[in-house]
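## retry 2 of 3
previous attempt timed out at serialization; input unchanged, resubmitting
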Amino acid sequence: MTRLRRFLTHLFLGLCLGTAQLCADGADDAFIRIYNLIQQAEAHRETGQWSSAREAFTEAQSGLEVLRRNYPTWNERVVAYRIRYVGERLEALKKTPEALNKPSTTPATSAAAASNAPPAVALAPNGEVVAQFEQLGLQIQRLSSDKQLLEAKLREALSAQPAPVDPREFQSAIERITALQTTNKVLLASLEQQQTERRNLVDKVVADEARAALDAANKSLLEQKVAAGRIEKQKQEIETKLKSLQAGPLQTLQKENSTLKQQVTELKSDTERGKQVADLAAKLAQLQISLDESKKRNSTLTSEKTGLERQLAELQARTSEESLAKIRQLENSLALAKANAEHNLAKAELIAGTLAKEKQTRTDLELSNQALKTKINDLTRGAEQRADAVKTLETALAVEKAEREAVREELAATERKLASATTAATNTTAVNASVRSTELASLRSEVWKIRASLKEGSSREAELRTALSTEREFRERLDREKAALEKRLTLALKAGPVLETPVVVKDTSKALAKMETRVRKLEEERDALQQRLQKLTQTTKHRLSTGATWRAVTAREQIEEFHRRRR
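## retry succeeded, writing output
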């Protein structure tokens, strides 16, 4: 009986040790279960099942938190990476509207989802490995149930009152115990083998994730090199353009304006464009420094990449514990390299934006000079139009003077007729008195109309003289403005290149705006004067034609018409 109790005690201790080992393997089982949940969530996300994917990711996140809380020293970097990855997926799913909870049918969406998937998805274990883990889990559950049953039997055996033991039953019990021990050893060996395979699989997953992270870092480094090359090419193009501008047609202007070098030097220190050129040179130097720093960082990243590749080769040849330590160091190095690459990319974009802005500034200055030339041409055409308008007014004034002289002569002739008719009326008989009175009334009416027409002609002549004087003043003003603009443009051209010799850009812009306002105002005045001139011309023509028609019927013809009617 004592031997039986001792044997049962040893058996209980062995089962307890097996239970402790199973508890140690609980972290691996939990991680495998969480890993399967993540794979299911990725599958739901790729097929557009957002709710199922969100639930699976949430459950995986909770499992990872429990795993980290219960086993704080088990693969900290792997657990942290998975928690961060699941959190990013949940944040992305929160931005997805519930109305889109249906599978996407476009290949572009599937391709985008596949491209956005993390490297761990491509490293998922195949179906055979998952099936093996499920079988291992079932075996572990069976062993746990067998252990619990044996513990219950042991407790019953220890608590029961010892009874007389038959030697044959005792021998059969010893044989059963021996068989159970053999079975337990076989199961423990199988369990150790399965645990070893599980640890190797976990190490493989971790190593694959590290390799994928290294590939991502290599890709980022390659993109950074391409961006740096593009920036270098843009810099060379800008330097080539600057050299071509410096060595181009502007040399002719510099030779022609050699006598104005002292004045140009003073303008450089007083004008705003000199500051712009100095700022541009300083910015170009800063861009060169930034580009050199980017090259240095790229070389540093290249050396870091070589070191990471060497570390990865060492990682594959070492044990799992050393691999995990190297993976931690590798992740830190990759994070630092990624941050440096993003910083260099931001600097490259800033350099490109600055170069584009400086190029736009130079283009704006060239357009300003071109606009000044255009305004001078417009003023020249306006002056020519004013000259034509002055000639037209002078012609109209001469015609008006000639018409007034003709009207005065006609008035004098009519007054003479009226005087002779009045003298004749005093010597006529009573029979012809009525005829003479009618003729006198007609002559007086004609004299009154001629005087009124003469008065209107005088007023029109005054208006034409006023319009002519205004037009001449306007033309003189246009000539002065044109001369001022030509002088400014000449000074601007003598000042030299756009990027080297400054010109008074601010004053030129203000003067140009003022000239535009004056030109618009003068054009409005010109239009008003043209309308007045057209109106006066039409009125004069109408009244002249009316007067000619009226003057065609003379007093003698009226008297003859009167006699015909009496007869």
